[in-house]
Amino acid sequence: MPFRATVLTLYPDMFPGPLGTSLAGRALAEGGWSLDIRNIRDFAADKHRSVDDTPAGGGAGMVLRCDVLAAALDSVADGRSLLAMTPRGAPLTQARVREMAAGEGAIILCGRFEGFDERIFEARPLEPVSVGDYVLSGGELGAMVLLDACVRLLPGVMGAASSGEEESFEQGLLEYPHYTRPFEWEGRTIPEVLRSGDHAKIAAWRHERALDDTRLRRPDLIERHGGASQAPPSGARRED
Ligand code: SAH
């Protein structure tokens, strides 16, 4: 059965948005995955259809009510991963995306305002997910980020390009840099090794650049993955 995504949101009109274009959009139209959008407001029980209330203890903004969130979640829960978008969650990784893409799909809860009444995390098996250390105005863009990352990995969506072991994060490294024609542009040329036709030499150069750039830009990745997964690709030896 294809990957099934359900999104619970107060702004259903935001979907499919970017997920309806390009490769994800084509796969969606062809039934390679499905997207079901539910309006959280439909689960409000009072006559004003209220979904939020003021924060206990005082302070700015509004908090999403746990009774409304639970009703929305319970209406769609079926064993798929239950995710809640929140900056208080674990940062999303390519490893988690791969795991999710290999499963049946996901149910994603999008917050707004100050976020969720915390009791929803105690009462339902919700995985808090963050898309980075910054604050968005709502969970919808985060849900789109997560789904875009999953969908491109689904069989047939991107072909070989998304299965590459050398892509950023797959080996705990950033990917090496790319170049294409023209060979010379504004006085800058493409590294000579890439024109050598020597595949072992090219692989070694790419591995070296991946390591150098990761050390420089993302030392946290090197730290997190240790040295074990960073062996050069087979047949690759650097010859300077
Ligand atoms: N008061 C909250 C932020 C609320 S932002 C806090 O400081 O933690 C409103 C909603 O946007 C959140 O409920 C969440 O669903 C979404 N959101 C904001 N930043 C996010 C991030 N980095 N990752 C995932 N979701 C985010």
* DSSP, total strands: 9
Average residue pLDDT? 94
CATH topology term of the largest domain: Alpha/beta knot
CATH class of the largest domain, named: Alpha Beta
List the helices and strands and how they pair.
Layout: E1 3-9, H1 22-29, E2 33-39, E3 52-53, E4 63-64, H2 66-76, E5 81-91, H3 94-101, E6 105-109, H4 119-123, E7 127-130, H5 140-151, E8 184-185, E9 188-189, H6 199-217, H7 219-225
Parallel strand pairs: 1-2, 1-6, 5-6, 5-7
Antiparallel strand pairs: 3-4, 8-9
Helix pairs in contact: 3-5, 6-7
S-adenosyl-L-homocysteine binds at residues 85-88, 110-112, 114-115, 130-132, 134-136, 138-139, 142.
What is the compact description of this entry?
The protein has 7 helices and 9 strands.
Describe this structure in words.
It is a single chain. The chain has 240 residues and is of the alpha/beta class. The chain has two domains: 3-151, Alpha/beta knot, CATH 3.40.1280; 167-230, tRNA(m1g37)methyltransferase, domain 2 (Trp Operon Repressor, Chain A). 29% of the residues lie in helices and 18% in strands. The chain is built from seven helices and nine strands, in the order E-H-E-E-E-H-E-H-E-H-E-H-E-E-H-H. The protein has helices at residues 22-29, 66-76, 94-101, 119-123, 140-151, 199-217, 219-225; strands spanning 3-9, 33-39, 52-53, 63-64, 81-91, 105-109, 127-130, 184-185, 188-189. The strands form three sheets. A five-stranded parallel β-sheet has the order 2-1-6-5-7, sandwiched between helices. Helix 3 crosses helix 5 (140-151) and helix 6 packs across helix 7 (219-225). The longest helix has 19 residues, at 199-217. It starts with a strand and ends in a 15-residue tail after the last helix. The model has no long low-confidence stretch (mean pLDDT 94). Bound molecules: S-adenosyl-L-homocysteine. S-adenosyl-L-homocysteine (SAH) is lined by residues 85-88, 110-112, 114-115, 130-132, 134-136, 138-139, 142.
